[in-house]
Specification:
Elements (H helix, E strand, L loop, with lengths): L1 H10 L8 E10 L4 E4 L4 E7 L2 E10 L4 E6 L1 E13 L3 E21 L5 E24 L17 E15 L2 E12 L10 E4 L2 E10 L1
Antiparallel strand pairs: 1-4, 1-12, 2-11, 3-6, 4-5, 5-7, 6-7, 7-8, 8-9, 9-10, 10-12
């Protein structure tokens, strides 16, 4: 019955409409992924690459409805530096990749060529390829790199709200969008100095699908 209902829904699409579209999305985060707080001995620095990019796909349903799935990748790195006893210095370098997987329900308002839309849903986010090195000049090491700047959660989930316009050009859809995500738990937290994840994220997205 469910399969039959889906086939009937797809049959209700306008003539010439494609029930499945695929393409790519590129975006720019308006917020830093990490903020830093210095400790009494160490200073922390973050270098966030605010660009994210990845594939996107959508199942288009009748009545302006749709379901979109994205796989978005970004990369960021960080550093800490300071004095350690007796008379030495410590420097750490680290980096990680980050994959974000939003699943969104979408509604397009009726129009011919330029259709405003809203979307909402959930997203999963996971760190990939996390690494960190420690360099000590004189002094005594404060411990292995894993004890400093270690993520407290490798994965997290959140909810997503967004809106944009779908411009239907010949053979292609162009979709600029503003998207807000709130993450339920941070990847990093600071206690007495270190890095903290920004759990609120605003992104400007640009999609192109065929």
């Amino acid at each position: 019955m469910k399969t039959r209902a889906l086939l009937l829904a797809l049959a209700a699409l306008p003539m010439g409409a494609q029930p499945f579209t695929f393409g790519a999305k590129i975006g720019f985060s308006a917020d830093k992924l990490l903020t830093s707080t210095d400790s009494s001995t160490l200073s922390y620095y973050t270098y966030t690459n605010r660009l994210l990019i990845g594939p996107t796909g959508e199942l288009r349903l009748p009545f302006g409805l749709g379901v979109e799935v994205d796989a978005l990748y970004r990369h960021y790195n960080f550093q800490s530096q300071g004095a350690i006893a007796p008379g030495g210095t410590l420097t750490t370098h680290g980096a990680t990749g980050d994959w974000e997987f939003p699943v969104l329900a979408k509604y397009r308002f009726p129009a011919k060529l330029v259709r405003p839309y809203v979307d909402a849903g959930v997203a999963w986010d996971t760190l990939q390829g996390y690494w960190q090195t420690e360099t000590v000049v004189s002094g005594t090491p404060i411990g292995p790199p894993a004890n400093l700047n270690q993520p407290v959660h490798n994965s997290t989930t959140g909810f997503v709200l967004g809106g944009g316009i779908d411009v239907h050009a010949p053979y292609v859809h162009v979709s600029p969008e503003i998207r807000y995500t709130h993450w339920g738990s941070p990847h990093f937290t600071s206690s007495g100095g270190g890095f903290s994840s920004n759990q609120n994220q605003v992104e400007v997205m640009f999609g192109i699908t065929f």
